[in-house]
Amino acid sequence: MVLLAVIPLTAFLAWGAAHAASLVASWTGGQPGGMALAWLVSFLLLWWVPLSWLERPRTAPPAARPALDALTVTVQIPVYNEDPQALRACLDSVLRQTRPVQRIRVVDDGSVDDDGNPFTYDDVRAELLRHTRAPSTPEVTWNRTPNRGKRHAQMTVLADDDADVFVTLDSDSVLDPHAVEEGLKPFADPKVTSVAGQVLVLNHDANALTRMINLLYLPFTRGLRSAQSVLGRVTINSGTLAFYRADIVRGAAGVYENETFRGRPMQMNDDSMLTFYGLLAGDTVHQPSSLVFTLAPERPGHYLRQQMRWMRGTTVRHLWWLRYLPATGIVFWTTVAEYVHILLGLAIPVAVLAQPDLRGHRGTLLLSGLVIATAMSYLMALRLFTVRRSDMTARQALLLFALAPVAALWRAVVLRPMYLYAMATCHRINRWGTRTTVEVGL
Q1: How many CB atoms lie within 10 A of CB 317?
Q2: Is the model more confident about 349 or about 430?
Q3: Measuring CA to CA, how many Å separate 252 from each of 235, 275, 278, 322?
Q4: CA 238 to chain centre
Q5: CA–CA separation, 90 vs 385, rounded Å?
Q6: Tell me, what DSSP letter sits at residue 441?
Q7: What is the pTM of this model?
Q8: Quick one: pLDDT at residue 32?
Q9: What is the pLDDT of residues 163-200, one digit of tens each?
């Protein structure tokens, strides 16, 4: 892994240094810099790529372990039109934790079947209650509420829960047995307010789409988020698995579930809003050793709706970061950098086609861009090998790695235009937009 990472990272740094030298030469009267400035800015905007490799799981010193063991932990699981088998596996994984939790709060947000009748999980509920009758097992509550959205489902039980740490867990996700134990370790540092778990695709080999999603998740889950964690400024915890100091969540009750944007109720990006509260109060980190396996969309329509929902919600959250976080802080400027990156992606092709001296080199520039994009995609795909999975053979992992440029092409051709559209329509945030019935089964 070290050798595989050193080669592209060295090339990455050499690329930046070469264009910096070219730019300096053009400014001091040497050869014209050409595209040197654009390339150099692009290099600087990818600051998170090398930094992500510095991430290590956070540990707790022996003196802090008694305090961590004494924490009261509540796991909250919102449920809406979930596959019963997936929900059963989710709950079972909570009960099998090496560090037991004290409470499990399940809230069914008014699930319905295909014909609109109430869809209940009586068998799953009865099984959970049967397994938690003993004195040493977690306290369990199971509520059913009218359908009002994930945030209301969460705060129905968390607003008055006196736990020390809240764990948010999606109902289509399965915890590694050590997930809670590892996720609590960063709280040994009193400055840490929230912890993101590492998200992996559970149904990774279901079809071509889920295989590609494995790769598409990496730049964020093990790239940008890892780099942000090194700085203690993770901006978005995946709602799939996240840990929060409970007083921060309780303090947001009444506001969090009633967030609006342009007069419309915000029904998405609940995870980024909770992380935002954590950012305002202290450090937010990622714990790569706290693993959760989630069901990814298996049909293109489901996947694209999910992406549009995430993109619109993230656009709104960008505005919140720019407005409420300090202009001297990392999050503010990395948000600005993201928009600069988008603008460069649009401006550079226009500049090349508009200038005669560059237009003649468009083939060379295009080839350079493809080479760099391919190298970057392979660099990020190396993160596949940082987790050894018993349900993924070496052949499967190597095949995924080989297909990394395909995911990069999908990101450029499909996801980037979608993102631009999502930015322009970010006000459409009052509908969940993903699940009207059970869409992915275990």
Answers
A1: 23
A2: 349
A3: 17, 12, 11, 20
A4: 4
A5: 25
A6: -
A7: 0.90
A8: 55
A9: 999 999 999 999 999 999 999 999 999 999 999 999 99
Residue 433's pLDDT band (cuts 50, 70, 90): very low
Q: Six-digit token pair at 375?
A: 């190298």
Strands (E), 117-254: 139-144, 165-169, 173-175, 192-201, 241-245
Domain boundaries, the chain: 46-441
pLDDT category of residue 99 using cuts at 50, 70 and 90:
very high
Decide if pLDDT at 216 tops 80.
yes
Catalogue the long-range contacts made by 260-265 (C-beta closer than 8 Å, 24 or more residues apart).
261/316, 261/426, 261/427, 261/429, 262/427, 264/427, 264/429, 264/430, 265/149, 265/429, 265/430
Asked if residues 319 and 259 have their Cβ atoms less than 8 Å apart, the reply is: no
CATH classification number, 46-441, choose in 3.90.550.10, 3.90.930.1, 3.40.50.2300, 3.40.50.1480: 3.90.550.10
By C-alpha distance, which of 195, 156, 171, 173 is closest to 68? 195
Determine contact, residues 57/182, Cβ cutoff 8 Å.
yes
Residue at token pair 């440029």: 405
CB atoms under 10 Å from CB of 74, counted, come to 24
| The pair of three-digit structure tokens given for residue 394, joined into one six-digit string | 């070496």
